[in-house]
Amino acid sequence: MSTAKHDRKVRGFQFSPWNLLLIVPLLVLVTPLFNMDGPRLFGMPFFYWFQFLMVAVGVLSTWIVYLMTRDKPTVDAPDRLSVDDLDEGDAR
């Protein structure tokens, strides 16, 4: 394992596609932003149709994160453990 890989310093803004998944929960937590009656859409108050819109934004951001990360490996190296090493039973 190379030590140069671990000696790198992070500078500036680091964007990760996973950050997109934070948009909807953080935006929905700020209820005073959308706690109002108007404008209405098809007779539905803003409070309700904004929440439906956030569901669509959540699905869209999840799809974008999936597309951006589907080809990246989840681990650096394959797991080399045997079945016996993975067994959680008592080894008597």
Automatic annotation (TrEMBL):
Sorted alphabetically, which keywords does the UniProt record give?
Membrane, Transmembrane, Transmembrane helix
Cite the InterPro entries for this sequence. Answer: DUF3311
* Name of the protein: DUF3311 domain-containing protein
Keyword hit for Transmembrane helix:
yes
Protein origin, superkingdom: Bacteria
Residues that span the membrane, as ranges: 12-34, 46-66
